[in-house]
From TrEMBL:
InterPro entries: DNA_brk_join_enz, Integrase-like_cat_sf, Integrase_catalytic, Integrase_integron-type, Integrase_recombinase_N, Integrase_SAM-like_N, Tyrosine_recombinase_XerCD. It holds the Pfam family Phage_int_SAM_4. It comes from Sulfuriroseicoccus oceanibius. The lineage of its organism: Bacteria, Pseudomonadati, Verrucomicrobiota, Verrucomicrobiia, Verrucomicrobiales. Residues 121-130 have a biased composition (Pro residues). The keyword DNA repair does not apply. This is Integron integrase. Keywords: DNA integration, DNA recombination, DNA-binding. Belongs to the 'phage' integrase family.
Length: 458
């Protein structure tokens, strides 16, 4: 290694042995450590940022390779060189920013599981006494037909993913119990499966209802069994559990603990009522400073809506966009400025992938290959990166509530209602189709039952 210490290489190898890294990774970790030192990354945070920024542009690395480079630099900086700045550097956040999306990500799932729109239904194989595994022709054919029916019906991608999971479990259960396909047994096999979920798996009535919806769709739209009646064990739906809501003080505490860029994402989720998927997938063009609004496209249910841009974070957003503009110019010069686009959009606007307006507001730290085509382009930060960061900072606070990223959205709605905002306005901002969905927040506002005095205090 090109280092200030002659024996640093040996010390590094000893350290990764103590940390129980697999022997096969030792040469690669050593190589990454040498590369970081050669780039003078140990001199400052700015040098380290520049090193990983250059690494993301010049190398088509898998996320685990990029994370391996971060790990090597972290061991050197913290354990061997004892650099003061390294203790406060967000190594974990850098790894999360470099995570590649899987083929099951909602924006890639349908491209990775293509179906033929006019393909005839394939008859299932002969009944067998052995339950089919995940690669069986029976299961693969059933899933393919289910996806085709869902897409022709215009169902959401999240619905497709959920239904296919239930169909997989249902096909395996039915084959294990009867040795037949659900198409052969008919709708009568739904009840035993629901009984299994309720009695043996102890799933909630809401989950049972979700499974029932998936199986009814399977038998009606895929197997063409027509109308039928089944004996369902599902109990009437109980009242919805009130969502968890943070106080304004708790929201401020959590947001202040988060590091960029997740801090700004949390401010958008709370300040504009965005879902985590909506916040992470924002593009530059969606921010309208002149009208002070944010445009949300292809949200849950394929809906579009406009929400107000919080004035408090407008300067920070403008600063971020200027940084991204400079990054885009550098990426363009290096030939790696393209971003992932939906296939139909890419066909309609062939040059949009390289247009700054279509760049992500929260881009990943490096380019990644498309799970199906293999084309390298930049994706946005994954939802799990925000979730992990929130979970980490939550442990550093005294908040004992069960908090998720969606809690920011619940708090947004509740605090607006507490400020006497019309419920129809809140419904529109949240993108709810039915006002009854928004009504749940009325039950947890301070001027409702939660604010009533206790007789113990009289």
């Amino acid at each position: 290694m090109n280092t200030p210490s002659a024996n640093l290489r040996e010390r590094f190898i000893e350290r990764i042995k103590v940390l129980n890294f697999p022997v096969k990774t030792h040469p690669y970790l050593t190589q990454w450590a040498r590369s970081w030192l050669k780039a003078r990354g140990h001199l400052s945070i700015e040098r380290t940022n520049a090193y990983f920024d250059a690494l993301s542009r010049t190398s088509r690395l898998a996320d685990w390779q990029f994370q391996q480079a971060v790990t090597a630099a972290r061991i050197l900086a913290e354990d061997l060189l004892n650099l003061d700045w390294s203790r406060h550097y967000d190594w974990e956040g850098l790894c999360l920013q470099a995570s590649d999306p899987s083929s099951e990500h909602p924006q890639f799932l349908r491209q990775c599981h293509p179906v033929e729109a006019n393909a005839p239904a394939t008859p299932p194989p002969a009944p067998t006494a052995q339950p089919p595994d995940g690669s069986s022709d029976l299961l693969a054919d059933t899933l393919d037909r289910t996806r085709r029916a869902l897409r022709l019906a215009g169902r959401a991608i999240t619905t497709e993913r959920s239904y296919c999971q239930w169909v997989t479990r249902y096909v395996r259960f039915t084959a294990h119990q009867s040795g037949q396909s659900p198409e052969d047994t008919g709708p009568a096999s739904i009840t035993p499966f629901l009984n299994h979920l309720a009695v043996e798996r102890h799933v909630s009535p809401a989950t049972q209802k979700q499974a029932l919806n998936a199986l009814v769709f399977l038998h009606k739209a895929v197997f063409d069994h027509g109308e039928f009646v089944i004996d369902t064990p599902i109990s009437p739906r109980q009242n919805r559990r009130p969502p968890t809501v943070l106080s304004r003080c708790e929201v401020t505490t959590l947001i202040q603990q988060l590091a960029p860029p997740w801090q700004l994402a949390a401010q958008l989720m709370y300040g504009a009522g965005l879902r985590i998927s909506e916040a992470m997938s924002l593009r530059i063009k969606d921010i309208d400073f002149s009208q002070r609004v944010i445009q949300i496209h292809d949200a849950k249910g394929g809906k579009h809506r406009v929400v107000p841009l919080p004035r408090k974070i407008a300067p920070e957003l403008q600063s971020l966009i200027e940084e991204l503009r400079q990054q885009h110019q550098t990426d363009t010069a290096a030939g790696c400025a393209n971003v992932h686009l939906p296939p139909a959009l890419a066909r309609k606007y062939p040059n949009a992938a390289n247009d700054f307006a279509w760049s992500w507001l929260f881009p990943a730290a490096k380019q990644c290959p498309h799970p199906r085509s293999g084309v390298f382009a930049r994706f946005h930060l994954l939802e799990k990166s925000m979730q992990r960061q929130l979970k980490r900072v939550l442990k550093q606070t005294s908040i004992t509530k069960r908090v998720t990223c969606h809690t920011f959205r619940h708090s947004f709605a509740t605090h607006l209602l507490e400020a006497n905002t019309d419920i129809r306005t809140v419904q529109q901002l949240l993108g709810h189709s039915d006002v009854s969905t928004t009504m749940i927040y009325l039950h947890i506002t301070k001027n409702r039952g939660a604010g009533a005095p206790s007789p113990l205090d009289f």
